[in-house]
Amino acid sequence: MHDLPPDLPRLRTLETWLQLNLAQVRQAIAAAEQREAERQRGIEHRPPTPDWMIQYSLGGRHPLHVHTGGCHMAGPRPKGVTREAALRALADGVTACSHCRPDSELGFLEG
Questions:
Q1: What is the pTM assigned to this prediction?
Q2: Cβ distance 60 to 66 under 8 Å?
Q3: Domain boundaries, the chain
Q4: Displacement of CA 107 from its chain's centroid (Å)
Q5: Rounded to 5 degrees, what are φ and ψ at 61?
Q6: Which parts of 1-111 are beta strand (E)?
Q7: What is the pLDDT of residue 1?
Q8: Is the separation of the CB atoms in 52 and 86 below 8 Å?
Q9: In angstroms, rounded to a whole number, what is the distance separating the alpha carbons of residues 95 and 90?
């Protein structure tokens, strides 16, 4: 450690400065712990991943692709659907994702 000043006034000043900095560090630690607790609560209360999803066009009007649940290619806002809805969408001509291949998973055969 660095050499400390020999006189009492400067030592008291240094003590005050260290106390203030320690208080700031403790506040930052408390805020970081709060953020981590909130993140953990979010993970614990996250709804389950749907088995099947449909990705819609911008504005949500037209279905673009059918995906398996959890497919990372599904875009920012896919909608979870039932197995029957996924099969119906494929039968109606909605494209199956070429990455997760929901048509294979569903046993869907075109035609």
A1: 0.62
A2: no
A3: 8-46, 52-106
A4: 31
A5: -95, -35
A6: 52-56, 63-68, 79-81, 95-96
A7: 57
A8: yes
A9: 6
